[in-house]
Amino acid sequence: MDEVFSFALVLSTIRLATPLLLAALGGMFSERAGVINIALEGLLLAGAFTAATVTHFSGNPWIGLMAAIGAGVAVAAIHALATIRFKADQVVTGTAINILFLGVPALLSGALFDSTGATPQIPQRNLLQMAPIVLAFGLVPLSWWVLNRSRFGLRLRAVGENPEAADAAGVRVEAIRWAGVLLSGALAAIGGAYLSVGQSSLFTRNMSAGRGFIALAALIFGKWRPVQTMLACLLFGLAEAVAIQMQGVAGIPVQFIQMIPYLLTMIVLAGFIGSSRAPKALGIPYQKES
Amino acid sequence: MLELREVTKRFGRVLANDRVSLGVRSGTIHAIVGENGAGKSTAMRIAYGFYRADQGSISIDGRIVEIRNPHDAIAAGIGMVHQHFMLIDTMTVTENIVLGAEPGGVALDLERAGARVRELSSAFGLAIDPKARIEDLSVGQQQRVELLKALYREASILILDEPTAVLTPQEVQELFAILRSMRDQGKTIVIITHKLSEVLALSDEVTVMRDGRVVGRRITRETTAADLARLMVGREVLLRVEKGPASPGEPVLEVRDLRVTAQDGSPRVDGVSFEVRRGEIVGVAGVEGNGQTELVEAIAGLVHRGRVAGSIRFAGREIAGASPRERRELGIAHVPEDRHRRGLILELDLRENSILGVHDRPELSRAGGLLDRRAILEKTTRILTAFDVRPPDPELPARALSGGNQQKLVIGRELDAGPRLVLVAQPTRGVDIGAIEFIHGKLIELRDAGCAVLLVSAELEEVTSLSDRLLVLREGTIAGLVDPASTPTETIGLMMTGGAKRGMK
Amino acid sequence: MRKTLGRAAVPLLAIAAAFALGAIIVVLIGDDPVETYRLLIGSALSWPDGIGYTLFYATPLIFTGLAVALALHAGLLNIGAEGQLYVGAFAAAWVGIVLAGLSPWVLVPLAMFAAAAAGGAWGAVPGWLKARFGAHEVINTIMMNFIAVALTSYFTQYHFKEAGDPIMQTGPIGEGARIARLGGFIPGLPERIPLNVSFLIAIAACIAVSIFLWRTRWGYSLRATGANPAAAEYGGIRTGRQIIIAMTLSGALAGMVGIGEVLGYRYRFYDGFSAGYGFTGIAVALLARRSPLGVFLAALLFGALLRGGLFVDIFTEKVSKDLVLVLQAIIIIFVASAAGFRLPFTGSSKGEGKV
Known about the structure:
The structure holds 3 protein chains of 3 kinds.
Chain A: H1 2-32, H2 40-58, H3 61-85, H4 90-113, H5 131-149, H6 151-161, H7 163-168, H8 173-199, H9 211-221, H10 226-246, H11 254-272
Chain B: E1 2-11, E2 14-24, E3 29-33, H1 40-47, E4 55-60, E5 63-65, H2 70-75, E6 78-81, H3 93-98, H4 110-124, H5 139-152, E7 157-161, H6 169-184, E8 188-193, H7 196-202, E9 205-210, E10 213-219, H8 225-233, E11 251-261, E12 267-277, E13 281-285, H9 292-300, E14 308-314, E15 317-318, H10 324-330, E16 332-335, H11 339-343, H12 350-354, H13 373-386, H14 403-416, E17 421-425, H15 433-448, E18 452-456, H16 460-466, E19 469-474, E20 477-482, H17 489-497
Parallel strand pairs in B: 3-8, 3-9, 6-7, 7-8, 13-18, 13-19, 16-17, 17-18
Antiparallel strand pairs in B: 1-2, 1-4, 4-5, 9-10, 11-12, 11-14, 14-15, 19-20
Helix pairs in contact in B: 13-14, 14-15
Chain C: H1 2-28, H2 33-45, H3 49-73, H4 81-98, H5 104-133, H6 137-160, H7 198-215, H8 217-227, H9 229-234, H10 239-255, H11 257-266, H12 277-287, H13 292-315, H14 323-339
Helix pairs in contact in C: 1-2, 1-14, 2-3, 2-13, 3-7, 3-10, 3-11, 3-12, 3-13, 4-5, 4-6, 4-10, 4-11, 4-12, 5-6, 5-10, 5-11, 7-8, 7-13, 12-13, 12-14
């Protein structure tokens, strides 16, 4: 009995960690290039809504997933345009994108489905099953390789640490940063797609419930490195899984269970941020003197 | 042959390069000299594509080349070693060298790159471990990485911007040997500097700049330091500041066995003891990064208490545990080394910058916490007038002032508080020559009025000419306490380096 | 005069651009932009209902806009106004219910203070976490939003809901805790419109924040910390303390939303009452370029949009009131891109304060 219980918990942990991991890996590519991506929350929502809507109309979750990636890249392009091209504050712009994707899905689903709350239910057979999980965890070693062993990764790290030096070495700083941000949009959107057409079967308003921010905390906890970030995501996934298990237990109000991941995030941030070394140029727009 | 023709560049109101034309012959070492702000770096940064000229052209071997960014410059065979190294601390030597010119396809071929790096370093005598991390290297070694970067890209023209500023005299000699060997192997070297002794020791030809213009060209063998100095400044220069003898009184600052550690726990100031008396200027000389910054910030109270040990006594009272504000109230003023980082709040106006550090004193702050705007305006006007800050408009943001005027504002504010001890770090960095003379005069005036002054400067000439006593700092310890008037510069230089292998970690 | 016009140029352009993009979105989802905007603006400017409700909706936005603006002056982005206003409103209701028997002269100020104090405490926590550990306030304020919603919901459901009430709300506050509606004082404004005394308090708060920031030494310390923390430290200002003070004051301003909501409108705490006031406060503060007068004007604009959004929701075929959220977001992006102002980075290379 105990064993079954713990096996279910492990499975549930992995499932719940998946969207976090996808968003966090996305955030990693943006932040290692020096661009803060607090818009992960909005990117998750953009991916989730697009996947649910396109899957509903096409009847094929893979088309939904592809559309979600497209949407994620498009939204990330807004972030890149504002922060890289126009040197807008990265945190402020990211916040605006998060607000934007409280509004856009509601506006569109209101027009398409006459409900600003949710998209229509998608039948079970049209949901993504294992693929996003495999993809998320498979991306961990791949991301490690890209960061540490590829030409793109070297340049990405360089523009995040010291863009002026990268520029002097002939690297096109803005282009690399664009690539990092767009990649983060694609990955976070896959995470969002998994939320709406994997873990559940429809898009509901604000269904990411802060996961974009939790992913960001996991990224910091994981020191902006793929393997450690994966472990951090598993920890948060475990917290959520335990919370769900506890929901049946009598006497504990549901509100307290809901708080667990948020409290854990705050504790982790306070406890470990000092030991984490951020990319040196993170958050600082690259401005040539002339 | 590298040629700039009629190159003009403006930054806002400032004309940084005014129809600059200069030629560098292939296979020579060419020095470009001039005061701070003469436009030397701007001209060379244009040649390297960091800035784009408003007008003018660049040609190599008679062909006009379009250089829009460093990428173009590299393709044209130009390499540059910047004053502040363009290296990524967390990466290895090889990663830094290949960045932007990586061998292999999608995957990095670091083995091949490492082999090429080893090959180049032996060809030019630049001993370096390709797998070392930049942050673990000494400044001199980092400079070699910069040279290797240019060589790896097969640069035939190498521009070095103030390459000796951060080196010990011994490292300077090593660098010069490397540069000569490069020239002898056919490379063209351009060195930007404001140190005339280096020009005479190293270069074949010299171009002198002043106020954004080229004011003279010389064959090095046929010129003298005095000739070059006159060209640089535009008039006969006083090589020493005029000052009378000091009449020091009782000690104001007594530092005993001071130790300061960095955030990572490594020692930066390692058991330093000295005193500063009223009516004297005590100078601190040393190669940058040998604990000067930490020493001054520890006395000002700006280093976290957990990282400071030892005793700091001010007017007989222990202040090692006092907050920066308490120290200011006791009469310690501080002209910080970096006015943009610490000394000014660039977005705020001159009034608000004039009260930084004293804003809550009763003469400026009325009951109920309201600021006394009239008193603040009076104070601001007083500082702007006394220190000749231009333009004297209290409502301008500090950002709108030139470097020299910003520095005069900072010094004016600090002296206006009527201090008994002034900590002055790099008072004339990035300041034009007129302001330098003004600031030097003010420091002497301050001393003669009975104030104690601790002066830190990376410019050896500045500390030796202003100080009454001179401390030489090396690796966080005092390597010597000398009388600057009677001690030869060579001796001080030797103390700065200790003859030992400084910088090897 | 020209200076003022110059300062207003970016916000005005941002508004124009947002409306233009909004019109395109309306067309894309198959509706008529002219009709949509006519409804949006027309319904917000009619007398007395339009203007009365616009001012009513503007009131919480003045408080949250001031909250965000004040924190921005200290270099902090407070995305937690939403959570702070929930705990503030709940605290006001709690005082109003538990101490219902007290005289209005005591009860009303006490309930108002409770709202500000609770919001302030909620803001102080992320402030302290930033000052002490370098944990970024943006993540922590968001987390505290979720916690505030859950916590107030718990207390409402388990401790303050009247038996048999199907709605998630507390019982009513005492009569003595109510503040007056302005309808009774302004000719032509009916008392059914919930515009109340808290609007006047909001105006007073604009003036107070303005004096605090530019005329007092405390405001100077706070702005110096926001503009250049290293220089502020050099000037003897304790930057960590300034961060906590700024977040506390910011939270208190956000908490004061509870005054109008609980003491002047519903007379009880209603679970989930906020129409995203805390987030709209960000748009208000940025559009205002952090100035309290600007906050007042920007809050009027967004108050009008909230009011008009309801009519758009009902009377157009396809467009929902969420259009207002989209307009907000676009305005923020435009202002941030054009004005180019940036929050300073207090963190070192050790990763403190970075997200």
